[in-house]
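step 4 of 6: structure.
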Amino acid sequence: MLLIKQLFLGLLLPALVGGGILVIARSLSPKAYATVRYEKEENGFTAWLIAAALGVGYIVGYLGLEGLPTFPPRQGIHWFCYLAIIGLIVARFWHVALWGPIAQIAISIMTPRLLLTSTFKHTWGPIEGIIWWVCLTVAIFIFWHFIEQSFSALPSGASGPFVYFGLSGGTALILALSGSLRLAQHGGILVALLAASWIITLVLQRDRKRFVFPRGASPILTLLLIGIWMNGYFFAEVPAMSAILLVISPLLTQVGRIEAIQELGVRRSTLVQIAAIALPVVIAIGIAVIRSGFFGDNSGY
Amino acid sequence: MKTDSGHNRQISYIGGLILALLIIGFAGSLQLADAADTYEIDTAHSMILFRAKHNGISYNYGRFNEFTGKITMDETDISKSMVEFEVKTASVDTANDKRDQHLRSPDFFSAKQFPVITFNSTKVSMKEGAEDVLEVTGDLELLGVKKSITVDVEITGKGQGRQGESLIGFESIFTINRSEFGMTYGVGGPVSDDIRLIVTIEAKQG
């Protein structure tokens, strides 16, 4: 009974809410889907609505699984809901000059400090803490850039949601193998949302409306993925190499900019890009499987 | 000169009197301190067990292997007694490595994020109508949530160890709802919300 409730609240409901918002966004401004350049101010609201589909869908899933978040957040997981809200706010003004970079720098600095408060307090000394903080800030900033660039690097409309669907699926699986089914459920919310986005995109493409994630979706995707991964690595048992491979995977969308790959045609180059992104995710899953003792003689429980 | 000498003598008398008063006061305070005995928990002869129901079918037991604590017992005025506990969450042990790893994860104790569970008493009294049973109220902090709980603590024995040290024993059995501390994973499913704790302590006078 609990499983059915969790499947409904953590997968189906967020997918329905997120998918519903995407369909509304399309009906409000069909032209907004004609090009990736719908960051233009006149299309700002529609672009935000597409980003909001992910953010609001995630918040619905969070509330379903965890209930109302505490304030101030106590556990790392409690931050996820607030990260989605911050992502929604930042996404709304993403097209406004300077707002994006300023928000990106500020959030990249603050996120590790807020999410890892207890690690700073109990685990790291002052110097170690500062080194980790600087490294994580730089890593988040660069990863955010990878995600933003990946939207325009992927040629086919449906490939964007599909790639992140795969990345979230890999994340959920690695978390489940690394001892935290609760964190895996949060990865599962993203899987459901991106699956819904992918399916809706495929349907939209049939009537030749090209549909691409707006760059404004990057704050929401970045913050949620980073939040889940940081909790997985620092508080669960996600192997370091798996975490690193997940972080670098969106960078590999850039293989689509290589001339030789572009010459393969849209369909083949998209496949090459997807394969390039899938490779580190599959390796990351493999490492987590080996580390989990899945093939050992552990009796489980 | 005579006058000066008498004056000096007077000063030395006053100084001596102050010193005597200080010594008496200090001895008196020592006497007061003696009324409260401080005991350190002997972890080799103490245990913190917990019990949860699995799938609503059977009881599964676990324990924490690492903890420290201090008990201050004031026999003359029991309300001045105090209890302090610190339990290392990473030391959870249910005799199954996979389950222990899961219990240490953010699904349950989140041991990396919350390395300790603490209990600090705020009120100690004798339980009415019961011999050798204390009623201890205190703040239990788990997963960053602090809640006041009141538990019955039985004094199971008093005596002396091999080296003549004073020993005292306690046992307390009580139940908490883990969801009240934000540990909600699996509630209504595989792991019960109510967790019974069995705390049995032998403490040595420090």
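step 5 of 6: annotate
 - The CA atoms of residues 40 and 153 of chain A lie 19 Å apart.
 - The two ends of chain A are 20 Å apart (CA to CA).
step 6 of 6: archive
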